[in-house]
Amino acid sequence: MISDMSCRILHSPMDLPLHYKKENMILDKLTSIELEVKSNIYNEQNKLVAIKTLQVLLDQIDFNVEIVPMENIEKLSRLLNSLKGRALNEEERELLSRLIE
């Protein structure tokens, strides 16, 4: 004979045994942390690419010959846009702002 408990249909998460709810909650939190870390890694990788791009652009400038507008972000941005051949992306602009501060 099968007991009533073993044949019970679960209609909602509230019907789950307590140990299962806790385990599931922990796994959900762990998954959330994993996604946050992956997002941070992606953002940090984009910042590293921006750093490398600005290094390459600044290496093209002969600071002994050219007057570089280091105090004026708009003029410096125009110069770097010209060297790059297109507009700086968001990460590059943010990094440039940090350099000028």
Describe what you observe in this structure:
The protein is mainly α. It has one domain (17-100). It has helices at residues 18-59, 73-84, 90-100. It is rod-shaped and about 75 Å long. The model has no long low-confidence stretch (mean pLDDT 86).
- How many separate structural domains? 1
Give the N-to-C terminal Cα separation: 77 Å
Beta strands, count: 0
Structural class: mainly alpha
Mean pLDDT: 86
As a percent range, the share of strand residues is under 5%
Main β sheet profile: none
Shape: rod-shaped
Helix content: 55-70%
Residue stretches low in confidence (pLDDT < 50, at least 5 long) are none
Number of helices: 3
Instruction: Give the C-alpha Rg.
Output: 27 Å
What is the H/E string?
HHH
